[in-house]
Structure formats: structure tokens, C-alpha cells
Amino acid sequence: MSLSDIDDVIRLQKINAALVDRVEQAMDQQRNAFSLFQTAISLEGQVRRRTDELTTALHRLEETNIELARQKDISERANRSKTQFLAAASHDILQPLNAAQLTISSLYDLQASDQARSMVNQVERSLDTMNELLRTLLDISKLDAGVTMPRFASVPIPPILSSLLSDLRPIAEKKGLRLRVAVTNDCVYTDRLMLRRALQNLITNAIRYTDRGGVLIGTRRQGDDIAIEVIDTGPGIHEDQQEKIFEEFHRGPLPHGDAEHGTGLGLGLAIVRRLMTALNHEVSVRSTPGKGSVFRIRAKRTDAPPSIIHATPVAPVSAHSNANLTGKKILVIENDPAVLEAMAGLLSNWGCLYRIARSTSQSIAALDGGDWLPDLIIADHHLDFGDLGTDTLERLFDILPARVPAILATADASQALSERAKQLGVEHLPKPVKPAQLRALATHLINSNK
After folding, report:
1. What are phi and psi of 408, to 5 degrees?
2. Torsion of CA 397, 400, 406, 410, to 10 degrees
3. Are residues 218 and 183 in contact, defined by beta-carbon separation less than 8 angstroms?
4. What is the DSSP string of 335-368?
5. Which range is least confidently modeled, 30-39, 53-62, 79-88, 104-113?
6. What's residue 317's pLDDT?
7. For the ranges 74-88, 265-279, 360-374, the one whose mean pLDDT is highest
């Protein structure tokens, strides 16, 4: 073989190798393309499956949102219904109790023997306990339902305690207890009525469960807060009971079976905790068995408001200090038959000249075109034909030639109604009304209007 032939073979081998290489590259490209095609098909399937899953999830989420909206609507309607029920219960439950307490006072005046009067007093104490229980249960229900909402303001502490102690000091003194106060002249950011109720429950409990010694109410500054403390020298509370005492109907043993001052309902501290939760205040207890207890409310300290107007409490009028209502003209605006009958008996015993009206139009008619001018008006809030006592009083004040004192006696103890009564310049007296309290207030208002 010649050299030229060898060169041709070499060239052919190179050409063949190049062709084989190109064929292999082409095949590799085809294999890659096929692989990519298979990958694309697989990804398309995954995307389709994920899309289906997302569509299903979105559909389920939409159904869940619809169900949540439905449940929210049911919850809101239930809350509205509960609010309406509580408002009705406050009125309808306390109305017959008010009639009973007014009637029992008239019954007492008719008794000739001490034994009969003692029995009437026993019934009256039972009615007072029932009143306390019903009011407390309604308060708890309103707090749990969110019906009672706090109205925050800068509230001075001393006036609240001064008002409370004027009511509670005689009870403490009757038990031979010292009731002392050591408070700073500070203000806290709170709701005045809710804080007052909590302190009233704490002080009442301290007096009830203390047999000897006394009760101290004090305040101290703790950084930006104020701690209000009620300290007693009672039997104390064991550590394993200190959390349970804030539960409903939990009652501790009274010293020496103190039946005279009531066994308690076991609801006072439950109310305190709910009130403090609503106000975002801290309530705590520290106690040593055999030495006494310290209940503490901690609230934010604030600056005093620019001007503080203190309401002057109505001084109690004794039965012997110009409390004679004989011949006084009283207009009673009330639509509950039992309360009307009880009021008629009570006012008759007091020697009053009274007229009765059940609505706004009847109240205006009772004035006889101005020929009959009452010395006092006693009005309920919910009247016949949907009339309201506040609106009726406003109409009467426009018609009467002279300003006549008025008492808004109602089972509606809401803060809004209390403020409306203040705007009208009338006394707000929550039902059930104690006859002695009503007589004292009526006498004071009539004598002050001379």
C-alpha cells in the first residue's frame, strides 16, 4: 500500500470519527429534548394537580368564611337578645320585689303587737336578701354579656371612700369595730361607679368577716399606679382558699356564726373580680390565718381633672325631724298594678293626697289644667303606650307654672339613665325602693323646695 493510500485511510477514519461524533451529539440532543419533553409533561401534571388543590382549598376557605360570617351573625343576634333579656329582667324581676317591699312597710304600720312587727321585720330582711341576690346575679350577667361597659375618667379616690364610709360606718360601729381611713389625695383612671361598687363589696366583706379589731382603708403610690387596700383583722384566709374566694357562691365561715349581719351570698368577690377585669385593674389578696387579710386594687394614677364637682348627698331625715308628709300632694306616675296598689297604701298611711297616672297623657290630665299642683312627682321610667318617665317629666316641667321636685324611681339602674336624670335635675332612685328611704328623700325634696 502506497503512502497516498495510507493517507486516504487516515482521512476516511477522521471523517468517520467526525460523523460518528456528530451522530452521537445529535442523539444526545434528541435524548435531552425527549427528557425535557417528559419533564414538561410531568411539570404540567404537577401544576394541574396543584391548581386543583388550590382551587379546592380556596373553595373550602370560601365556605369557611361564609360559615364564620353566619356564626358571627348568630353570635351578634344572641348578644343583642341577651342584652334585651337583661334589660327586661332588670325591670320585670325587680318590679314585684319593689311592690312587696312597699307593701311590707304598710303592713308594719298596721301591726299592733311587737311579735307581729318582729315577723314583718323578718320578712323585710328576707326581701332585702332577695333583692341583693337578684341585683348581684343581674350584675354578673351584664358583665359577662358585655352589656356593662366602663366609662373611664380621672376619678378622685377620697370622695368615693367618704360616700361609702358614711353608709358602712354605722354597721361597723354596731359590731364594735373601728373603721379607719388613710388615703392620699390621688386620682385614678377608672369608672367611678364600677370602682365604688368593687370597694363597697370589699369593705362590706371585711366588716362581715371581722369579729374584733377593725378595718383600715388606705392608699399608697406604687410607681405610676395607686394601690387601694382594704385591711382587716379578721380570721384570715388559708393559702389554698385565696383563689377560690373569687368564685361564685364561695362563702367562708362567719365569726361565731354572725347571723345578725347575714351569711353572705358568696357573690361579692366574684363581682369584684369581674369589675376589675372590665376596668383592666389588678385585684389581689394577701392573708395570714388568724391575723387578717389585705385586699388590694391596683389602678393607673392620673392627674386631677380641671374641675371636680362633688354631688352633695341627701342627708337622711329621721322620722322625728319634720318628716310629716300629711297633706302633701304627690303625683305617682307608674303602670305596674302591684306597685300602684302598694304606693297607694303607703301614701295613704303617710297622710298624703295623691293622684295616679300610667302614661304621659294621664300625667298631664292629672294636673287639671294647672288647678292641681303637686308638691312632688314620683315617676317610673317604663310607662304605658311605650312612654318614658324622663320624657314625661320633661313635658310636665314645661307645663307646670313652678318647678316641682321629682324622683325617678325605676328598676333601670343604667348609667345612661342616671345621667339623663341629672340633666333633668331629678333624683334617680333604683328599685326596689325602701319605704324609709323614699319617705326621707320625699321629705327632704319637698322641704328644700319651699
Report:
1. -95, 95
2. -60
3. yes
4. --HHHHHHHHHHHHHTT-EEEEESSHHHHHHHTG
5. 79-88
6. 39
7. 360-374
For residue 58 the three cell numbers come to 380556596
> With 60 as the cut, is the pLDDT of residue 2 above it?
yes
Cβ-contact 432, 97 below 8 angstroms:
yes
CB distance 234 to 210 below 8 Å = yes
Return the SS3 of 11. helix
| Pairing relationship of beta strands 376-379 and 329-333 according to DSSP bridges | parallel
Cell 385585684 -> residue: 283
Question: Which SS3 state, helix, strand or coil, does residue 164 take?
Answer: helix
- Alpha-carbon span 276 to 300, nearest angstrom: 12
Hey, what's the cell of 319?
Answer: 322620722
Rg from Cα positions in the chain: 39
DSSP 276-344: HHHHT-EEEEEEETTTEEEEEEEEEEEPPPS--PPPPPPPP--TTSS---TT-EEEEE---HHHHHHHH
Average pLDDT over residues 62-75: 81
| CB 408, CB 429: distance < 8 Å | yes
Beta carbons of 443 and 325 less than 8 angstroms apart? yes
Is the bond into 158 cis (omega within 30 degrees of 0)? no
For the entire predicted model, the pTM comes to 0.56
Distance of CA 234 to the CA centre of its chain: 29
